């Protein structure tokens, strides 16, 4: 890992989606870690704080809103890109109010995701 290589934690319960992110982000020179639910994400963040997080809202055990709430209580410095199939305006507003930096609806355009993530990390 180089000093200039931003770290990204991808939090999504869908294994195929995590694999998609892995291929996409590794090609763009990101250090990538994965969590399949909110509890796992918070445990990983306790060990290593990533530069950014790609966060799904709908997950078992602890959803994305729970992650955002927990992180807002700790005054984290992680840039969070919420990427989810939940398109309701109230969900977007709630995610932003809880500390999300940006929001992208699934299905997403690969170039758009990379552009938004780049703005958050570089």
Brief account:
The protein is of the alpha/beta class and 122 residues long.
What report would you give on this structure?
Strand 3 (52-55), helix 3 and strand 4 form a beta-alpha-beta unit. The chain is globular. Helix 2 (38-47) runs parallel beside helix 3 (64-73). It has a single domain (7-121), classed as Rossmann fold, CATH 3.40.50. The chain is built from five helices and five strands; from the N terminus they run E-H-E-H-E-H-E-H-E-H. Helices cover 44% and strands 20% of the residues. The protein is of the alpha/beta class and 122 residues long. The mean pLDDT is 93. The two termini are 16 Å apart. A five-stranded parallel β-sheet has the order 2-1-3-4-5, sandwiched between helices. The longest helix has 13 residues, at 15-27.
Question: Main attributes?
Answer:
Rossmann fold, 5-stranded parallel β-sheet, 122 residues, alpha/beta, 5 helices, 44% helix
**Mean of the pLDDT scores?**
93
What is the H level of CATH, i.e. the homologous superfamily? Response regulator
By CATH, the architecture is named: 3-Layer(aba) Sandwich
**Shape call:** globular
Strand content: 15-25%
How many distinct helices? 5
- CATH class annotation: Alpha Beta
**CATH fold name, please?**
Rossmann fold
Number of domains: 1
Radius of gyration using CA atoms only: 13 Å
Task: Classify the helix fraction into a percent range.
Answer: 40-55%
The biggest sheet amounts to: 5 strands, parallel
Uncertain spans: none
**N-C termini distance:** 16 Å
Task: Classify the secondary structure makeup into a structural class.
Answer: alpha/beta
Order of helical and strand elements: EHEHEHEHEH
Give the strand order of the largest sheet, numbering strands 1, 2, ... along the chain: 2-1-3-4-5
């Amino acid at each position: 890992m180089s000093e200039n290589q931003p770290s990204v934690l991808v939090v999504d319960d869908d294994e195929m989606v995590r694999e998609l992110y892995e291929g996409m982000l590794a090609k763009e020179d990101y250090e990538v870690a994965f969590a399949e639910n909110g509890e796992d994400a918070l445990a990983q963040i306790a060990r290593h704080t990533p530069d950014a997080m790609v966060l799904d809202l709908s997950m078992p055990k602890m959803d994305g809103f729970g992650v955002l709430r927990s992180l807002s209580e700790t005054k984290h410095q992680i840039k969070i890109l919420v990427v989810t199939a939940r398109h309701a305006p109230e969900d977007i507003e709630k995610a932003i109010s809880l500390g999300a930096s940006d929001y992208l609806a699934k299905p997403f355009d690969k170039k758009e995701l990379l552009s938004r993530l780049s703005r958050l990390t570089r």
